[in-house]
Specification:
The chain is an all-alpha fold. Helices cover 73% and strands 0% of the residues. The longest helix is centred in the C-terminal third of the chain and has 37 residues.
Length: 287
């Protein structure tokens, strides 16, 4: 029996273990990279925000790794400031969207059939609307700016997560411990607060991280077309919008580096989300 227990892992098991290790390693590197971006803004301070007309439109060099813009501001530092700003906007918007999805999922599964049908109708209606058009309408109706962008992103990114959480809770309703709680006379509100909500924590955490890139990309898109953050702020959308006037003049670095930085941040959040899903989903450990 001991000889059987000491058998080495098979090739598929080794492959799965190697995949888990690589996924977690990439997730840790991505988290460290994002942390470095946030810390760098404190190191640079006002550098990259204040104008310096003596260094206007310089190409990439050792003194300015990503060149300078039309006002002589260092594009590398300015891009980092923009990423940090997008991070906080995305954090608030994604958190609000997760809270909306959680409340709607709990409402649909604990307040009866009419509530479930109402939430299903809201999800279908929201997913049937053109996403970018809805974002523009909400942001424009609120007058634009940082607050408007946060609200616009938050109220348009909850439907898919709501559908996932609702499906999870509908399966959980038939669990044995839930049925025992019902037999003891506990209300659905009590069950939702003490049984459903703790079960949703891993899904909410992964959902928050995976909503981040959507929130950041849509914030940059709204800002790029003029319905987002104020032009005075070093947002990625502002940098990309300003670069359009100079790209035809050969100033390629004004659009290249902010665009690449935005892409890398989105990929970092995707890697972190995959790592969290691997850690929090017990089914991943059984495959």
């Amino acid at each position: 029996m001991s000889a059987i227990l000491d058998l080495p892992p098979s090739a598929p098991e080794r492959a799965r273990d190697g995949h888990r290790i690589r996924t977690l390693f990439v997730a840790v590197l991505a988290a460290l990279g994002l942390t470095a971006v946030l810390l760098s803004t404190h190191i640079y301070g006002r550098y990259g925000i204040n104008a310096d007309f003596s260094t206007r439109l310089l190409g990439p060099s050792w003194s300015h790794l990503a060149g300078t813009d039309q006002l002589g501001r260092d594009m590398f530092a300015r891009t980092l400031h923009g990423l940090a700003l997008s991070f906080w906007v995305g954090l608030i918007a994604a958190s609000l969207s997760v809270v909306i999805a959680m409340l709607l999922a709990l409402f649909a599964t604990t307040c009866g059939r009419l509530a479930d049908e109402a939430v299903s109708f809201l999800v279908d209606a929201a997913m049937g609307l053109p996403h970018l058009v809805l974002l523009i309408l909400v942001s424009f109706s609120l007058g634009g700016g940082t607050t408007a962008v946060i609200i616009a992103v938050a109220v348009t990114h909850w439907p898919r997560l709501t559908r996932i959480l609702r499906a999870e809770l509908l399966q959980l309703r038939h669990a044995e411990f839930v049925q025992i709680s019902r037999q003891f006379g506990k209300s659905w509100f009590y069950i939702g607060r003490h049984h459903f909500l703790p079960h949703l924590v891993p899904q909410l955490l992964v959902g928050l991280v995976l909503l981040f890139p959507h929130a950041i990309l849509h914030e940059a898109g709204l800002t790029f077309i003029g319905f987002g953050l104020e032009p005075s702020k070093p947002a990625i959308g502002v940098l990309l919008s300003d670069s359009m006037r100079y790209l035809t003049g050969g100033k390629w670095w004004l659009g290249l580096f902010p665009g690449l930085a935005l892409l890398l941040v989105v990929l970092c959040f995707d890697a972190i989300g995959n790592g969290l899903r691997l850690l929090t989903d017990p089914r991943q450990e059984q495959t």
